Amino acid sequence: MPDRPVTASRRSRTRSGAARRRRRATSRRAATRKNRTASILRGLAITAAVTAVMLFAGVMVTIAIAAHALNDFAQDRGGAAPLLTPPPPEPGIAGYGVDQLAHACTIITVGRGLALEERDQTIAVMTAMGESSLRNLSYGDWETSGVTNPDGSRTTSVGLFQQQDNWGSRDARLDPSTAATLFYRAMVARVPERAGLEPTLVAHRTQVNADPQHYARYWESAVRVVAALNAEPLSGDSARGVPPCPSP
Hints:
Elements: H1 8-76, H2 98-113, H3 118-132, H4 141-145, H5 170-173, H6 176-190, H7 199-207, H8 219-229
Helix pairs in contact: 2-3, 2-6, 3-7, 3-8, 6-7
């Protein structure tokens, strides 16, 4: 018996059934993904909550330990509240520390020994500030900036006053006391009328540097340092922790 021809109606029903099956499969996959995402989000939320609780507990324990320690400390001090004070500032005057002030004291002491007035001593301190920031440097402008002399030769400046070879031996220039003595002797010889000159001009004519006004910016600081080292700090300065220069 010959096969019956497939009618259009049967073909349509077949396609419709296949489409429904595909839609149901797609819906099941979407539902599965949705359920998996929701499960992951729930897990993350639980983890975050547990972490927050643990952190809070840790903070509370830390606070409790700190409070207990402070209470013990207060009891050790007879019930007084603990004193939480910052460390004291480093001693210094006009931005110069103890080591730098010790060099200034050496300069002042040498000036006293030569019977020079306090103004001369202050000019010497000002000069050392402008040359080395009151540091006994073993190098100079040639090493730091390549500065040369007018004749093109390299500079050989060292020490508190950055004195070159023509001032004396290297060892002498690196000895603060000897370097100060060399400066004072040159100042007395080169600027006998210094009492009527600006301090920066006295230093300029003694050092024979390029800029006559180079030292002017250091004068006020030098005045403050000399006053403090003489145990007579100016208003606003404190000599606490700064050893005064020995009395002459």
